[in-house]
Amino acid sequence: MAVGVFTALGVTFLLETRWLLPLTVLFLSPALVILGRDARRNRFWLPFGLGIVSAAGIVGGKFLLESAAVMFGGMLMLVCASIWSVLPLVRRQGEKMSEKRVFEVFSAGCGVCNGVIDEIRQLACESCEVKILDMGDAEVEERARSLGIRSVPAVVVDGRLADCCSARGVDLEILKGMGLGQA
User: Fold this and answer.
1) Is residue 182 part of a domain?
2) CA 43 from centre of chain
C-alpha cells in the first residue's frame, strides 16, 4: 500500500535507506525537542530520557538490527514518553491542589512591586499562602541572592524562583500555571 502511494506521488526514492534514515531522524527530532522542552518546564527528565532511548530503538531497530519488534517497541515507548511528559500538566490543570503553595514576593516597596503584590493577593485562593518579603532586610536580601533573584518584584513558589522572574519580570499566567488561584 505505502509503495503504491509513494509511486503515485513519484517519490519512491524516499523508500531507499539512504533517504529513509535522514527522514526518520528529521521526523523524530520535533518529538524529542518537545519532550526536552516539557522536561525543562516540569523539571522532570525521565520522559525525555525514555524518548531518547525510544528514538534510538526506532532508528536502531529499523536500520542497524533490521528488527521490526525493536522498531515498534521504540515507537510504543515514544508514545508512552509523550503521554508521561504531559501528565504533570494534566495533573496541575485537572486536579484540585490539596497542599498549600507558598508564594513569596520579594519587593522593594515601589509602585511596581505593590501593584504585583495586589494582583497576586487578588488571585490567591485558600490553597495559596502569600508572603511579602522586604528587600531592605539583610536576611531577605541574602535569600534573594541565593535564589538567583536579580531584580524585583520577583516571586518564589514553594522555594523555587518562578520562571517568569528569572530575567524578565512577573508573568501572572506563568504563576497561575504554578498554582496561583487554584484551590
Assistant:
1) no
2) 7
Structural domain that includes position 84: 2-93
Q: Where are the alpha helices (DSSP H) in 43-137?
A: 46-59, 68-94, 111-123
121 and 146 both lie in a single domain: yes
Are residues 47 and 82 part of one domain? yes
Residue 81's CB is within 10 A of a number of other CB atoms, namely 24
Least confident among 65-74, 92-101, 124-133: 92-101
Q: How far is CA 132 from CA 108, 152, 168, in A?
A: 10, 12, 20
Cis check: omega of the bond before 30, within 30 degrees of 0:
no
For residue 94, what pLDDT is reported?
46
pTM of the full structure? 0.48
Count of domains in the chain? 2
